[in-house]
User: Fold these one by one.
Assistant:
Number 1:
Amino acid sequence: MAKISVAICCANAENTLEATCQSVQWADECIIVDSGSEDNTPQIAQRYADTYVVEPWRGYTEQKQFSASLCKHDWVLILDSDEEVTPELAQTIQSLTQDELNCCDVFWMKRRNFVLGRHVRAWDPDWQSRLIHRHKAQWQSHALHEGRRASDPTREGRLQGDLLHKRTWASNADNFDDYFGGSRLDERLLPVARQMYDDGKRCRPWDLLLRPWFAFFKFYVLKRGFLDGSFGLLMAQKASVSTQLKYAALWHVQNLKDG
């Protein structure tokens, strides 16, 4: 099979980066791009990376594009520093034949998300396009996330096995940012709202009234969050509050722009 590079973007990731790197030691190359850590991230990164680069933050899409550009192999696995590749997923990637690779430019994989150390089943399946041919995949930009697609949908494949997201995040008992959001949530609200506005979306009174309730119903009932007891209730409430804040930010942006 083709050789695989792994590209990891990070910043202040001392609690999670080592688990990420250990999960991809089977890869042929590891590139780590640090956007300016002030903790022990550089020391951890330099133990595992074939190439370690400090690069000021360019944005979600641009930073990962830059990391992929540093790779010497065509096939690149894009990771965040709080994600881990399960053994099943690693085996699936390593077992890809040249014929399978020739048929695809992008491979999707499921991501299992963890909050407060617990798997959030209501967020499944969270499909991510992470294994890409770096010269053929097309990058898609978003205010918060990035994505990659093939120019032809028939050239996209799906892999067995999971990515684990934030599984080790709660190793620090005082860290509740993965639930409450904190400053990271504050920083992201307005960029998301501006993109929603640019995409033609507007906040109407019934959006503020009904969308948070529908988000709660979706994650607690339709996605069966109730099976997780009080934790499922917390996650449905989190979805409801996040939705309310997002549309409140959109209301603010459209009032500024539309007068």
Note: The chain is about 40% helix and 25% strand.
Number 2:
Amino acid sequence: MVTTADGFAEREAAKAMINDARQATDNPQAEITLGADKGYDAKEFIDALQEMNVVPHVAQNTSGRRSAVPDAIAASAGYAISVQKRKLIEQGFGWAKTVGPIRQVMVRGLKKVDQMFVLTMAAYNLTRMHTLGKIRLQPA
């Protein structure tokens, strides 16, 4: 989801996407985890996630301050897996900036930038599908 860069919009967008994910599940009480980088380590955001019954697998930002992510969550096995998976997610954004046109967007307006982002990430997904197909087609 593309938002304006104001320091708060990313966290608000994350909450909206969590609500969408919650509505898409058959079980509204299903446990959801959210992996995010250090920019999301804010007390109000972590508290909001816990109110929404979402386990915050947010990277702890401990440089000169105390992290809002509870130590019990950060010490869990699921959190360790989230750290590894978070790196895989970042690969898509790296591809969008190096191969795709996202590093310096040539369109103006939130709607046009959003369209460019969606098309770029769709292209990345197609590239990944092609690569995964080659891996799976190799004889055993």
Note: The two ends are 40 Å apart (CA to CA).
Number 3:
Amino acid sequence: MKQPRIPHPTMPGEMLTEEFLVPHGMSQTALAERIGCAPRSINEICNGKRAISPLMAMRLAEVFDNTPEFWMNLQTAWDLWKEWEKHSPKRTA
């Protein structure tokens, strides 16, 4: 099985936290209120316990002035990497 083209993608929640929430000085709770979802949903995304859904991608894109595809591509790259890690032959040094 070939390794994915992306060596090791950034977890979507890490990207949300480090590249969007922190620079905007926005808390998880403030983001949740702004997009009309439960704070727990944002917290779980930021902690890698929940995937970014298409609806969430649309909401995030509107708040951060980017595209839903940006968020979905992050999620897809992350999901593919995790599957590759699970199913690839283990290499020994």
Note: The radius of gyration is 15 Å.
